[in-house]
Amino acid sequence: MAAKEPPIIDFAPFYGSDSSSKDKLVRELRQACEEFGFFQIINHGIPPDLQDSILTQSKALFELPIEVKEVYNKDGNPFNRGYERLRSQNFEKRTAGDLKEGFYLGTNRSVDDPDVVARKFGQGPNTYPAELGAEFPRVVERYHAALTELAEGILRMLARTLDLEDGAFQAFCERPVAVLRLLHYPPQEPDASDLERGIGAHTDFGAITILLQDTTGGLQVWNNLTSTWVDVTPIAGAYVVNLGNMMMRWTNDRYLSNLHRVINKSGKERFSVPFFFSGNPDYTIRCLPSCQGEQGAKYPPITVGDWMTGRYADTYGKGNGGIGELRREPGVNSGGV
């Protein structure tokens, strides 16, 4: 019988030496990837004070006056870093736009870094609001480094779920495209349309997404087995992990990149911090040997950079960055990449 929500998985065995516990973790992850493409992890090793700090900095950022935030608008930034206006995205195209604002960050590389000079996808310097002082970049960079390490750990375990060596994704993880996005969802008006969304239904572009959410709630995932939307109940300190379209392609559709959305009817503000890990721009994604099956690979090889550039251009128009694939109603266009 299908679970009502994505499973909650204890990630502690990853850090231990007990082989039976690690085997159990691998089985749980494999089942979650095949059935949901979503799961929550606890005991992941990220300090609670660091989680609190990134949420505190995010709240301080969005409390800045709009005229200050506009100074850092990402639309004028050549590296797609900075402020994203309220309702600037509109995934389902049925309202005035998604009821959220955001701020894009990533690995903070200098303008003379070789990958930046070469204009490789997703590489560049961050934009830090001067009004928030030195604490904002300090917390952001510490948090980004910690989540990069966690992403690498999750991928080591996902390699095991696919009958690969732990280090099978090591080259993929070198100098990765790793986007950190701060998000603020204002409370939805009580008389708002039933079509109002904090963010409309979509799937993510990259390999994996690691989401820190506050306790407000509102995140929903499409359950393909029951054809219903299910809530992802917030768990203090836990991370919601989901697979993106790149991972679905990489595994020959064995693993699922699933639809999700946010509807904030709580009457409160909602804050979340997704971390999108997409790997090295030069790495070539080709069907994994354990996923080919009798029919072989469904998709031709493609580099991370070409894949991400194509998805951004197809979905948003050239030069307009985003986080995921536009989707229509479930059952109409809810699968594949």
From TrEMBL:
Signal peptide: none annotated. Keywords: Iron, Metal-binding, Oxidoreductase. The keyword Oxidoreductase applies. Residues 176-279 form the Fe2OG dioxygenase domain. It comes from the Eukaryota. Pfam families: 2OG-FeII_Oxy, DIOX_N. Belongs to the iron/ascorbate-dependent oxidoreductase family. This is Fe2OG dioxygenase domain-containing protein. It comes from Aspergillus pseudoustus.
